[in-house]
Inverse folding.
């Protein structure tokens, strides 16, 4: 049995496509939408469309942004000699919450994972090499802040080898992070310790 | 710290207004939307807008519908001598799942609750009286399928008194339903028993 309204059923269908939202939650959300003022529903719909319309990758670090260059890369308060390499934009949020790091970032957009068909060419590695290789580059340290999973470690070692010829310091987050845990879900204290105790992978 | 994209932050804000979705879930949903194909996002946005645009109350029973009269009221297979009075459209779904009931419905749109400022005039009671009072009405029984909470019981007793002058049978669901539970979350078996064992509140 379904609701006697096709449009409500379509909305339930759409909601249940989202992660962590099952059939029952989708029905509850749809029932809530029915009670919401029309204006609020249209704000939600607009927000969804705006995200797809406006969000793009920062031309420097590939972080998500609404502008050509993201607020971190365009900030004069950030140290330009350090680049912290992360998997996803969400990881930047996690690191920023520690208040421990004042450098810039570079978003890979994933990790090397042969099983999922993700190779080095699918990641934002070329743009990272270009950043470091620029004649006016002030980068003196690359921090590999990649989740310590099997794929993450593979990616970190691959990058460490690739970056060695540049003769700059390459570090990775200290193993304060519980191994196997995705970076996004690490707590502030653990992440703070991991940044402070980062270990050297290559030094000029 | 926020995402370096204002439109993503707005979407997170909008998501977290929905029930059962906290800040963390909202962030995860927004991250998912970023990865979704544009077409799917626009389907979700359209579904939201369509619901507010198309859904209305059935002119007979006040159930939600996209048409003037809902599919239950317009079906020739439903018994027109029985009307089951429920709180919300969701309760119709729960009752239909039992496969036990073949009559029609009437949606009150809530229960009498002085604390929330809901009085009898805020509910679809007048339209129920009009249905029963019509010269060509074939209604011989009203089943009050209202959640057995304090407010629900108050509403049931209020309706039973109000409907007594019509000289028709008035029943309510048997107390098979665990007292205090909202009708929507009752399991099929309990609801089936409750319909079969409904007790008479007034008889002509």
């Amino acid at each position: 049995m379904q609701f006697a309204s096709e449009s409500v059923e379509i909305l339930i269908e759409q909601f249940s496509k989202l992660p962590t939202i099952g059939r029952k939650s989708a029905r509850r959300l749809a029932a809530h939408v029915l009670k919401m003022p029309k204006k609020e529903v249209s704000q939600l719909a607009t927000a969804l469309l705006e995200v797809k319309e406006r969000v793009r990758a920062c031309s420097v670090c590939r972080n998500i942004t609404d502008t050509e260059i993201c607020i971190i890369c365009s900030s004069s308060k950030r140290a330009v000699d350090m680049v912290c390499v992360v998997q996803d934009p969400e990881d930047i949020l996690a690191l920023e919450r520690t208040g421990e790091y004042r450098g810039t970032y570079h978003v890979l957009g994933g990790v090397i994972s042969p099983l999922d068909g993700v190779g080095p060419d699918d990641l934002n590695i070329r743009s990272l090499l270009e950043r470091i290789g620029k004649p006016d580059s002030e980068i003196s340290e690359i921090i590999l802040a990649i989740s310590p999973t099997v794929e993450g470690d593979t990616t970190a070692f691959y990058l460490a080898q690739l970056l060695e010829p540049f003769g700059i310091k390459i570090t990775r987050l200290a193993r304060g992070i519980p191994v196997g845990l995705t970076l996004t879900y690490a707590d502030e204290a653990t992440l703070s310790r991991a940044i402070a105790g980062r270990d050297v992978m290559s030094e000029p």
In short: Chain B touches chain A through 59 residues (CB under 8 Å).
